[in-house]
Specification:
Elements lengths: L1 H8 L9 H14 L3 E9 L1 H8 L1 H19 L6 E6 L2 E7 L6 H12 L3 E3 L2 E13 L14 H18 L3 E3 L11 H6 L9 E3 L2
Parallel strand pairs: 5-6
Antiparallel strand pairs: 1-3, 1-5, 2-3, 4-5, 5-7
């Protein structure tokens, strides 16, 4: 019984939390940490990857994305990541200072869009990332406790779709424009221009 309950809380493909346990943990983090980022990730080119290389390649992209999220958040104490379904992921990340949010998003985008290996090929998918910061909510707009999470998820979702319409990359309320990352940017952590959504890595 305990093993079945544990499996229900974890997504079987990615190993990340599923939505309900993620939301419970996220609400606790938001209640305790004053500067917390809520991040949504949607993979770009995922359907094309499935259509070209088959669903097993898509499964590998999901596993690679989960591993990239875990690696990128490994040193962020209290961070929680989840697969919400399909090719959509979420994370709640406590920050020491709010001005570090762009660095976090750039690192996440670079990690997620790095090549992964499938069938002897190095493949990549793109990513659109949106975020919202709890400390950016005004006192009037800041609900108490668990009610804060849906507000931040909505703002992160809106920011993510702005990034997606711009061709991918990352965005958050208050950003001057959506940012993207080049292959070189992935190596150096600098914002740049966006690489193709789905391709075989050179």
């Amino acid at each position: 019984m305990r093993r079945r309950l544990s499996a229900a809380r974890r997504d079987l493909l990615s190993g990340l939390w599923t939505r309900a346990p993620f939301e419970r943990r996220a609400a606790r983090v938001l209640a305790r940490r004053p500067h917390t980022a809520v991040v949504l990730v949607d993979l770009d080119g995922f359907k094309a990857l499935n259509d070209t290389f088959g669903h097993a390649a898509g499964d590998e992209a999901i596993r690679a994305t989960a591993a990239s999220l875990n690696d990128a958040l490994a040193e962020k104490r209290g961070a929680v990541a989840a697969r919400l379904g399909g090719d959509e992921f979420a994370a709640v990340v406590p920050l020491e200072e709010p001005f570090t949010l762009p660095w976090l998003l750039n690192a996440l985008h670079g990690a997620i869009t790095s090549p992964f290996t499938y069938g002897g090929r190095d493949l990549t998918v793109g990513a659109s990332i949106g975020a919202a910061l709890s400390s950016d909510l005004t006192e009037k707009a800041r609900p108490a406790g668990a009610a804060m999470l849906p507000v931040l998820l909505r703002l992160a979702d809106e920011a993510m779709y702005v990034a997606k319409r711009a061709g991918g990359g990352w965005n958050y309320p208050g950003a001057s424009e959506p940012r993207c990352t080049t292959t070189a940017g992935r190596r150096t952590g600098r914002p740049g221009t966006h690489a193709p959504h789905h391709r075989e890595a050179a």
